[in-house]
Amino acid sequence: MAEAETRRRSRGGGGAARRAERTAVSVETAKYIQRNIPNFEILNEEAIEIIETNAETVLAEIGVNFVNNPAALDRWREAGAEITGERVRIPRGLARKLCSTAPSTFTQHARNPDRAVEIGGRNLVLAPVYGPPFVHDAMGGRRYATMADFEKFVKLGYMSKWLHHSGGTVCEPTDIPVNKRHLDMLMAHMTLSDKPFMGSVTEPSRAQDSVDMCEILFGKDFVQDNTVMTSLININSPMTFDDVMMGALEVYARNNQACIVSPFIVGGAMAPVSVAGTLTQVLAEVMAGIAYSQLVRPGAPVIFGAFVTSIDMNSGAPTFGTPEASQITYGAGQLARRMGLPFRSAGSFTGSKLPDAQAAYETANSLNMGLLSGVNFMLHACGWLEGGLVASFEKFVMDADQLGALHKMAKGISFDEEAQAMGAIAEVGPGGHYLGCAHTQAHFKSAFWRSDLFDFKPYETWSEEGARDTMALATERVQRLIDTYQQPPLDQGIHEALTDYVARKKASMPDAFM
Question: Which protein family is it in (predicted)?
């Protein structure tokens, strides 16, 4: 691994890149969260056993569909599953046995080694919103996303202290042809940020492009021996695995790259209305998907995913931050830990159209649920609006600011001698105050988590400064981050090779917008 790292860093333009790195402005990024607090466990042992037994029944008796994918059916047949048409029935215990070869933790490397993240165990990695076709800001309102918007989000993610990951399709740049936009998005993640990122899953060949570009960025041997991408593989709930998503999974698994195998659950529409029924379906779908990844390559890194929302029975719209979603997420976390797998869920979820009070309540519920449920990889941690249809610039920085509170909460409570503060209590005594005591003076800078966005000034000062609400403060912060952004240095030879690859791939096919 060290040899591959040395080879990667020694290619073309190394001297200039090293000089640039020495003079570049350093952007502070907090290390991924390491929990020192307990997970909230909502299911007792009997409930877990019921769900696990029922999930095995679903796989063995009802089965799952692998559509338009004869190779997948052949793999399952060879493994011992019963195949009827495109329906795969998996004997009891087989899926869980196959899943056992997946690692319980893995490292996703970044081109800046200091930004590498450890996914699994007691860790929590935070990544931004994924997939919206629209963007929203205070000046332009709601509109279709462009590549310029995408690049702006990547820069904001790079500048955000509490985000550990650059994400993937932070918004969908609709001004670039569908068959080519993945190349520009990957290029943005690779050049505008040095944090870890996600690969393309919209077509298997685009997943292969993602691998090829990573081999340019990191070196081919390094990519084959290490995980440098995490990618989102959604299951078409209920219990359908399509050829596009599975084709992308096959590419990534073959190349030792991580996949989030995630049911897309809208309770009442794509899963039962009951928590127990939904958890049964989630577990069955995840086991089938992860087992399939291990048929492709035993030991391929995976994440147990659960995207969970319920449905408003009056309008049919998805709802977020609800008690039922929390119950399912807490339960899914327990099921993932029982399987010894990293867990993905939660995010800055809201159905609101604006970064308003509804958005704040729903997002706060969803973020805290993620922290307490033991999530290891939180996609959509900032920027989500309107049920995932919109990526909001203001909400991106609002949410990213609040992620700092998760870091502080996850640290737990210190009880060392200094934290017990007995000296301070004795120094101040009855009727005194702690503002000037030695203990306060020694710790006042780090004692309390502090928002970089909210206004805590007295009313008179706030009024004199323009009576700005949080939306106005967030608009200002977005602009300040963009104005102070400096691109992280990248070896010139690697940059040129990536540029050439993108140009050749684009020239090899006509534009397609479908």
Answer: Belongs to the trimethylamine methyltransferase family.
Handedness of CA 207, 212, 213, 214 (dihedral sign): positive
Q: State how far the Cα of 264 lies from the Cα of 256, in Å rounded to an integer.
A: 24
Per-residue pLDDT in tens (0 to 9) along the chain, 514 residues: 333 333 333 343 444 444 444 444 558 899 999 999 999 999 999 999 999 999 999 999 999 999 999 999 999 999 999 999 999 999 999 999 999 999 999 999 999 999 999 999 999 999 999 999 999 999 999 999 999 999 999 999 999 999 999 999 999 999 999 999 999 999 999 999 999 999 999 999 999 999 999 999 999 999 999 999 999 999 999 999 999 999 999 999 999 999 999 998 888 888 999 999 999 999 999 999 999 999 999 999 999 999 988 888 788 788 898 999 999 999 999 999 999 999 999 999 999 999 999 999 999 999 999 999 999 999 999 999 999 999 999 999 999 999 999 999 999 999 999 999 999 999 999 999 999 999 999 999 999 999 999 999 999 999 999 999 999 999 999 999 999 999 999 999 999 999 999 999 999 999 998 7
64-67: long-range contacts, CB 8 A cutoff, minimum separation 24: 64/88, 64/90, 64/239, 64/240, 64/241, 64/284, 64/285, 64/288, 65/239, 65/240, 65/241, 66/241, 66/246, 66/292, 67/240, 67/241, 67/242, 67/243
Q: What burial class does residue 13 get, using C-beta atoms within 10 Å of its C-beta: 0-12 exposed, 13-18 middle, 19+ buried?
A: middle
Residue 458 to residue 130: CA distance in whole angstroms: 38
pTM: 0.93
